Amino acid sequence: EPAKPAYRRILLKLSGEALMGNLSFGIDPDMIQRMAREVTEISRLGVQVAMVIGGGNLFRGAGLAQAGMDRVTADQMGMLATVMNALAMQDALEHHGAFCRVMSAIKINQVCEDYIRRRAVRHLEKGRVVVFAAGTGNPYFTTDSAASLRASEINADLMLKATKVDGVYDSDPMHNPDALRYDSLTYDEALSSRLEVMDQTALVLCRDNSIPLRVFDVYQPDNLKRVVMGESVGTLVKR
Ligand code: UDP
């Protein structure tokens, strides 16, 4: 008998950069196809999969504001960037035979569905991958916060944050060769030592709603499946 997934419903947060591959802007077709293939595979195992995708591969509000743009307008561009990434992911998922719905926090309902929580849950129950787009719909937030919010709303058993490194370190492993990786830590530890796991808003939301978070290296093939099957890949952040 094939092994069963360890979770019923998960929320996967992918940064925009995860779709960029080796490019410096935009979406790398090979990269998004690979991600979509892995997501389709876990969806077929019976896990209900919701996703939040960032927009940093296209536009970031803070960056645009630094270049002189009004911050709120800049954030709106950032949120629209996440919609484009979500549409690309929907397309890639369908390419692999998965069923998908994009739901946006900003109304653009000729392009995708509006976010309605009960409909999102229904899609998940039917085995459709739901991609939550446009972040929280509000400026001054990040897609990490959007992911924490949606994970709380849909009662996800686990939030997964896909990164370039294989977990949470006590200092930046790209710069410090002696950096130590945590197997697990608490939200309070992450908050007080200001470890670069997620922004503080996102951490607090996950903590207060008791959503465990696994940070893992998404560039490592099959890591997503391993996490879903219950393996301790990367770092677990919990209450
Ligand atoms: N954004 C926003 N509100 C949200 C989520 C995102 O205004 O609730 C904007 C913000 O400008 C952000 C951009 O969308 O810089 C892209 O999201 P993010 O930087 O979180 O993407 P990632 O770093 O994950 O690629």
TrEMBL record:
GO terms for molecular function: ATP binding; UMP kinase activity. Pathway: Pyrimidine metabolism; CTP biosynthesis via de novo pathway; UDP from UMP (UMPK route): step 1/1. Residues 9-217 form the Aspartate/glutamate/uridylate kinase domain. Its main location: cytoplasm. InterPro entries: AceGlu_kinase-like_sf, Asp/Glu/Uridylate_kinase, Uridylate_kinase, Uridylate_kinase_bac. Its EC number is 2.7.4.22. Pfam families: AA_kinase (PF00696). It comes from the Bacteria. Inhibited by UTP. Keywords: ATP-binding, Cytoplasm, Kinase, Nucleotide-binding, Pyrimidine biosynthesis, Transferase. It is an enzyme of class 2 (transferase). SUPFAM superfamilies: Carbamate kinase-like (SSF53633). PANTHER family: URIDYLATE KINASE, URIDYLATE KINASE PUMPKIN, CHLOROPLASTIC. Catalyzes the reversible phosphorylation of UMP to UDP. Belongs to the UMP kinase family. Homohexamer. This is Uridylate kinase. It comes from Acidihalobacter yilgarnensis. The gene is pyrH.
